[in-house]
Amino acid sequence: AQSVSQHNHHVILSEAASLELGCNYSYGGTVNLFWYVQYPGQHLQLLLKYFSGDPLVKGIKGFEAEFIKSKFSFNLRKPSVQWSDTAEYFCAVNPGWGKLQFGAGTQVVVTP
Amino acid sequence: DTGVSQDPRHKITKRGQNVTFRCDPISEHNRLYWYRQTLGQGPEFLTYFQNEAQLEKSRLLSDRFSAERPKGSFSTLEIQRTEQGDSAMYLCASSWGQGSLASYNEQFFGPGTRLTVL
Question: What is the pLDDT of residue B1?
């Protein structure tokens, strides 16, 4: 079955630590890839997206993600997190025609 | 605020009752999506519209669920004969796009309607 997997459900780290969240998908063919974030009490919002070209994409707030086609992965990274990065992060795949399939999400808590 | 809005934000109902939710998308967006999110899971696709046409429905959407977008603007999602398993956050999103080009346009999400079925 087609799926999106996020490796960690909860991550706790200290400010200034580096963050990497894994995402793997099981679709064949061309897909468009997204990372969304939900800060406490706020709507889901887009962090970054990939659909073609440079497999290293940069998003808002210092986040970046790397698409590795051979590994069906789209991992999210940030070199140095801040307390304000505490949020839930969702990887999503759009296999075409518009609908998104989301992973289960990773709750990230950044401690001061 | 010109983002996606949803009403109501919270709904508590008794099992067997009907409920209706409304979504107002960003005005220039032609696509409107409904998703459902339960605790500990990511949003799951339910259905989407391009203008007033409903283009796809998930198998998650039983015949107790119906969605409309009568004039290609706002949309309603109705659940008939609610069950406790319907308790979830119902999210609406909108975007702009045509055909396969729509697949990489950002979807803008609303705040959701939290449904609790007692």
Answer: 55
Q: Which helix (H) or strand (E) holds A13?
A: strand A10-14
Query: Between B42, B95, B110, which is nearest A90 by CB?
Result: B42
> Residue A46: its chain B contacts at CB < 8 A?
106-107
User: Regarding beta strands B44-50 and B31-37, do their DSSP bridges make them parallel or antiparallel, or are they unpaired?
Assistant: antiparallel
pLDDT tens column, B65-92: 999 999 889 999 999 999 999 999 999 9
Spatial contact of B84 and B91, defined as CB atoms under 8 Å apart = no
With a CB-CB cutoff of 8 Å, which residues 38-97 of chain B face chain A?
A: 40-45, 48, 50, 55-56, 91, 93, 95, 97
Q: What are phi and psi of B22, to 5 degrees?
A: -120, 145
Residue with tokens 């073609």: A52
Closest Cα in chain B to A48: B106
If you average pLDDT over residues A3-15, what whole number do you get? 94
How does pLDDT run across A50-71, given as a tens digit for each residue?
988 999 999 999 999 999 999 9
What is d(CA A108, CA A37) in angstroms, rounded to the nearest whole number?
10
Neighbours of B1 (CB within 10 A): 4
